[in-house]
# Entry
Amino acid sequence: MFDHQEIIATLEMLKNEHLDVRTVTLGVSLFDCISHDIGRFKKNVQEKLFKHARNLVTVCDEVGEKYGINVVNKRISVSPIAVAAAPFSPAQMVEVAHMLDETALAVNVDFIGGFSALVEKGIAKGDRSLIDALPEALSLTNRVCASVNVASTHAGINMDAIILMAEAIKKTAGLTSDRDGIGCAKLCVFSNIPQDIPFMAGAYLGTGEPDTVINVGVSGPGVVKKDIDRALSQDQKMDLGKIAELIKRTACRVTRVGELIGREVAEKIDAPFGVVDLSLAPTPTVGDSVGEIFQSLGLLAIGVPGSTAALAMLNDAVKKGGAFASSHVGGLSGAFIPVSEDLFIDEAAKNGHLTIEKLEAMTAVCSVGLDMVAIPGDTSADTIAGIIADEMAIGMINNKTTATRLIPVPGKKPGERAFFGGLLGEATIIDVRNRTGGNPFIRHGGRIPAPINSLKN
# Structure
C-alpha cells in the first residue's frame, strides 16, 4: 500500500517529471496457427491477433485516462516467426511480415515484434529463411520489428549467424538509404534474449509463455534525475550509498505504477498479467534523459571516466527497487543507453566524450548493449560482425542480456547527423576503427564454445 508521502511523490512524478507507462505489450502465441499452407497460416494469425488485440488500444487509453497516466505505446509481441512459419521460403516470410504490418495497422498498435529467430546453437530452415527475408521485410514495413538471438551463456556464440546478421544489416541499411538506414532501427541482435521483453525492437513471446499475456514497460529517467537533484540541493555531501538508496526507492514507486496499469489492462482484455520491465528508457526530450542523470551525479557527460561505475550503481539500484515493489519484474529492467533516443547521450557522442569503445565497456554493467548507434555507411560487414561478436561475448561471459542495434547510415561519415524521427530521435555518426577492412577472425565462422560458467545444472 502507498502511504501519504508516496502518493504525493507519485503524483509529482506524473505531473512534472515525465513518468509514463512507456509500453503495454500484448503477447500472443502463434503456435496454434501453424500450417504448411501460407494462405491458411496468414489467415489463422490475423484472426487470432484481431480476436485478442482489437480492444488493446481502447482499453489502454481508458485505463490511462482513469489514473491520469499516459500509456505512450501499445504493442504486440508474437511467437518467433522463424518457428511458427518454419516451412516457408524467404519470399513467403516477407509475405508474413506484410501481413503482420497490416494487422498491426488495423488494430492501431504502434509496433509488432516477433519477426525473430533463436540461432545461438545452430540455424534451422525457418531461421535461415527469416534471416534472408530481413532486409526486404524491414524495408517494406513500418511497424514490424525483428530480433535474432545469436549467443547465450549456455550455447556459446554462433559466429556463422553473426556473419549473416552483419550482411543483413548492411542490406537493410541500403534498402532504406533514403531514410538514413532506418530499417536497421527495427532490428536487434541479442545474446541471452529474455522471453518477456515488452520493449522494441527485441520483443517476442517465448515458448515458455502463456497463450496471451500483458507485459508492461515503465520508464522514469526524468523521475530519477529530479529526485537526485532535489536530494543533492538539500545535502551536497550525500554519499553514493545514500544516492543509490534514493534511486532504489524511486524505482520502487515507478514499478508500482506500472503494475497497477498492467494488471487492470490485463483484467479488461481477459489476459494474464506477466511482468513489469522497469527499464530507464529515455526519449529525445529534455528532462527525460538517462544522460542527464550522469550530469546530476557530478560527471561532465556520460562517457567520461567514472561513467561505467555510475551506470553500474544506477542499474543495480533500479533492479533492487523494482524487485522490492513487485514479484513479477522481468524483461530487461535496468538502464538503457540508446544513443539516438537520448538527447544528452547523443550530445556526449557529438562532443567526443562517448566513443563506441566506451559504450561497449559500459554495456558490461547495463541492461542492453550498443543500442541505436549510428555508424558510417561504409562500415564493412566484417567490421559490423566484429562489433556484434564483441558485444555477444560480454553477454555470454557475464551471463546477462546484451544486444546491438547498429545503423550503418548510407552515404554519411563520422560526425555527420542521422535523423530517424519520433522516439527514435537523431544521432551523431560515431567513428569505428578499421571500418572498411576485412576480418579473417570473424570469417573462420563456427561456434565459439560456451564458457565454463555455463555448467551449472
About this structure: The chain has two domains: 15-191, 219-248+276-454. The chain has 15 helices and 14 strands. The longest strand covers residues 20-28. The first helix runs from residue 4 to 16.
